[in-house]
Write a structure and sequence with these properties.
Structural class: alpha/beta
Radius of gyration: 25 Å
Largest sheet: 7 strands, mixed
Shape: globular
Distance between the termini: 75 Å
Mean pLDDT: 92
Low-confidence stretches: 1-14
């Protein structure tokens, strides 16, 4: 609260020097941008939850802890940081897989656990075997330590503020999850308030100026000799919020660029220098040829995963590559360490010579992407839905400024090859690829960006894993559009190895929103039916649930290629294992 004095100056009310451990944590969470906390209540977390209720932060209760972690992940991808709060043992270990995904994909999520009072942590305490625990209280902490960049158990109120700041600072600086465990008898202990917001400011990686200058000079020498250079942009630019740096480089250079799956929508896909999605052998022919025949490849923030590289078929040559990662630049066989990606981009942009894009064989994705609104689509009455035409059709109804979320399988392989309109944010857990991620993530995204259209694409098998929090979206009156792709089971698994183990019970999916207290969804079998529903989406202010019924084996061509590649890799591993067993 502030008031004006007689001189018109603003007088700011001084905050107390002492506050409880939980109050301090919640204050710091708000200061770094956390306004919502996702989770499930539990008895060891009750003291924490009562403090949350009294705070300026909003509690978002979910149906299970796994979805709470997924929601915090989705929230963080929009807001910059997310938070999940659970009870000790059964609660936090249910959330563990979601935190693992955030670790793998470099998403800053804060996992807070309310745990039993400190005396029970003593291995000699005769009452240590409490419900929800493993008896050995160090086990969950050790598990989380492997998938977080910093962790702490608050055991002393005198150092609590310092510990909280240390862990939160690591979270926002490293763009990785952290873990904070607060025993029940520590939550309301008084601790000294630390007032310096700088304690939480993200630390920028340091840059060795000499190494930076040498890296830029060598890059410029290669560029001056290159006739057909290309840039590969990926998720590192997104996680470190370097999109503007990248745009400035594109403007200064005139160079064409492609993205990998995890870097989709790093900048607007309507950009005239954007060629499209590169996935090794699974790319469109022009994109693959343009990248692999380039005489210089500049890789920015690239994560070389199997999905990103088309099953590790990305064919670039070290002798013709500049690879800039977060803290180092590799050029041919030279490594320049302590060169922060932002500094490299800025220095290169200042010195690079612009080329005329018309001389660089640029076939813009706007005119060549596989599924795009620039090609007219006519829904055919009575024609059944197919994977390829489905995304041709939907591409015409994705609004500007939307957030598009896609699940592993048909959903992600269809949407990544769909040209997105201006200011669209694309989200997919396409490295860790935990099925069911999309339901929780959609909840988190809707909470983080209530004024943006949200379109979620999820398969039936994945939906059955985490569907409960559809009810949380309904309860909170959120209004995403959910496309449930029903192809009767685990299609991506069928493409790798078919069997009855890929079958699931057929649900009446379109009825579930009504069961959960919302409006009944729509069951859609034909293009004409889908067209009618898509035309009505723009005016919708409630959750829309569209069950798209596709034939069991209907898949985008790139997904079929991915399945074949994974099948081959799986068979190769099996054969090699058998050989080793025989020789033994």
């Amino acid at each position: 609260m502030s008031n004006g004095n007689k001189h018109g100056q603003i007088l700011v009310r001084e905050e107390p020097d002492m506050m409880s451990v939980t109050e301090y944590l919640l204050m710091r969470l708000k200061q770094i941008g956390v306004l919502h906390i996702f989770g499930v209540p539990g008895d060891f977390a009750m003291a924490l939850l009562k403090n949350v209720e009294r705070s300026e932060l909003e509690w978002v209760g979910t149906c299970n802890e796994l979805n709470a972690a997924y929601a915090a992940d989705g929230y963080a991808r929009i807001k910059g940081v997310g938070c999940v709060l659970t009870t000790y043992g059964v609660g936090e270990l249910s959330a563990l897989n979601g935190i693992a995904g955030a670790w793998a994909e470099r998403v800053p999520v804060i996992a807070i656990t309310g745990s039993p009072v400190l005396k029970h942590w003593d291995p000699n305490d005769p009452q240590r075997r409490l419900h929800h625990t493993l008896g050995d209280y160090s086990i969950p902490v050790a598990m989380f330590s492997k998938i977080t960049t910093a962790h702490t158990v608050i055991t002393d109120e005198r150092t609590a503020a310092e510990e909280i700041d240390r862990v939160l600072h690591a979270c926002i600086s490293n763009k990785l999850p952290v873990y904070i465990n607060i025993p029940s008898d520590m939550t309301d202990k008084p601790c000294a308030r630390r007032n310096d917001i700088k304690e939480l400011s993200a630390t920028k990686p340091t840059t060795d100026e000499q190494a930076l200058n040498e890296a830029v000079e060598e890059s410029l020498q290669l560029l001056s000799a290159a006739r057909a250079p290309v840039i590969i942009a990926d998720v590192g630019l997104v996680r470190w919020k370097l999109q503007q740096h990248f745009l400035q480089l594109l403007e200064a250079s005139g160079l064409p660029f492609v993205v990998l799956m995890t870097g989709k929508t790093v900048v607007d896909e309507s950009h005239p220098q954007f060629l499209g999605l590169y996935m090794g052998d699974r790319s469109r022919e022009y994109v693959q040829k343009r990248v692999e025949e380039a005489d210089l490849t500049i890789m920015l923030g690239v994560m070389e995963t199997d999905f990103n590289t088309g099953g590790f078929t990305m064919n670039t040559h070290k002798s013709k590559t500049v690879q800039a990662d977060i803290n180092e630049v590799r050029i041919k066989h030279h490594v320049y360490q302590q060169v922060f990606l932002a500094d490299f981009l800025s220095a290169l942009t200042k010195k690079i010579t612009r080329r005329d894009p018309s001389s660089l064989d640029i076939h813009s994705a706007t005119n060549s992407c596989r599924h795009r609104a620039t090609v007219q689509f006519d829904a055919e009455p009575g024609r059944s839905l197919t994977a390829n035409r489905l995304f041709d059709q939907i591409s015409h109804y994705i609004p500007q400024d939307a957030i598009v979320i896609a699940e592993t399988g048909v959903a992600v392989y269809g949407t990544v090859e769909t040209l997105m309109p201006q200011n669209v944010t694309f989200i997919a857990q396409s490295f860790y690829a935990s099925i069911g991620y999309t339901v929780g993530a959609t909840l988190g995204v809707c909470i983080a960006a209530p004024d943006r259209p949200v379109l979620a694409f999820i398969g039936d098998g994945s939906f059955q894993v985490t569907c409960q929090d559809l009810s949380t979206m309904i309860r909170r009156q959120l209004h995403p559009t959910i496309f449930l792709i029903n192809n009767d089971g685990y299609l991506i698994e069928r493409l790798i190895c078919d069997g009855a183990f890929n079958d699931i019970q057929m649900w009446k999916y379109s009825m579930l929103p009504e069961v959960m207290g919302g409006r009944r969804g729509k069951e859609i079998k034909t293009e004409e039916q889908l067209e009618q529903e898509l035309e009505g989406l723009a005016s919708g202010q409630e959750l829309s649930f569209l069950e798209l019924q596709l034939p069991r084996w209907e898949a985008p061509e790139s997904l079929k290629l991915a399945g074949a590649g994974m099948k081959k890799a799986s068979l190769t591993s099996t054969i090699e294992g058998r050989k080793q067993n025989v020789s033994a």
